[in-house]
Amino acid sequence: MRERNHSRHGFTLKELLVVIFIISALLFLLIPMGGRGREAARRLQCTNSMMQITLAMHNYHDTFGMFPTAMGGTGAGGNENRLNALIAFIPFMESSDLYEQIQVGTAGAPPGGPAPWDKQFPPWQRRLDNYRCYSAVDEEGDYKPTNYAFSIGDVTRDIHQLPKARGAFAPGLFTSFADFTDGNANTIAMTEIGTANRRNVHGQYAVGLPDTILTDPGICWRTVDSGKKYYLASVRLHDRGRGYNWVDGGAGPGLVNTILPPNGPTCAVGGLEAVDGVYSAGSEHPGGCNVAFCDGSVRFISETIDTGDLSVAPPTVEDFAETEFASPYGVWGALGTIAGQEEVDRNDLE
């Protein structure tokens, strides 16, 4: 019986190395694509959260004819007028039970709730997912954070006791759509802010700085390295960073001004939290941050957006108290004002 000859073909070492190289190259290409896909999904989630907040903002306005103050409350002996406007939107975001607990007071707290730093009040320890961005660093702390802050426009002085609002929101003041003569689509309501991650610029902020920054905000850039990504080791930072407590309406945790661009540094003057200064928007999204406008739209704004002349002093109350006063800080500053009458081309927002 004749035997058949079988020729066996396998991979040579050279061929095997080529196959391994091709597979490795494909994986090298696919892994960043997967990372970009995950970031795109997270950014979309953050956008949706901002849209839910702006919808609640509109519903609040429909109900009361105005927007809540950016920082307010029941005064001394209650919550020290430090509550964030985010609290006012809770009943419009399917959390009426939580809002009821705050209003009646629980665990020995007064009606309206205690000060934001009271860690014994259960509602203040509630984590609200709609107030967080999934791209942000998630660190468990003794307060529950937020990644959204209210715009006060391009002012740096007396920001917690302004007699007239320059931006869509202001501590102690109530605004309405009637005040937004620049147009709802051209007026920022809120922006993203980062959360603390070591010395990263977009989630941290410098504290106890001199008041020269209030008249020359460009000085704030001196607190960061040449790459504009990290604060210098010599700069004192806040213990917990931006947005560390969603309940607190002070500038450090809950406000932004439209002076330095998104992902720029933040500089608190002469103190830690509810003090004057330059408070920048920012996020973990590469290249910029999400911004919510007063018409309810949300757009991604690049960190390269035009900011005009940062060596010019910010407007004072006297500048805009009686007349329209254009922002000196380019497109970004113009978007922060409610009645500056600047001309804004939406194509400049990219």
Compact overview of the structure:
With 350 residues, the chain is of the alpha+beta class. The protein is 22% helix and 10% strand. The chain has one domain.
Secondary structure elements and pairings:
Elements: H1 13-64, E1 71-72, E2 83-84, H2 96-104, E3 148-151, E4 188-192, E5 206-209, H3 251-254, E6 255-256, E7 267-269, E8 277-278, E9 288-293, E10 298-302, H4 317-320, H5 330-336
Parallel strand pairs: 3-6, 5-7
Antiparallel strand pairs: 1-2, 3-4, 4-9, 7-8, 9-10
Overview of the structural elements:
With 350 residues, this protein is an alpha+beta fold. The protein has one domain (41-349). 22% of the residues lie in helices and 10% in strands. It is built from five helices and ten strands. Strands 6-3-4-9-10 form a five-stranded mixed β-sheet. It is globular and about 80 Å long. It starts with 12 loop residues before the first helix and ends in a 14-residue tail after the last helix.
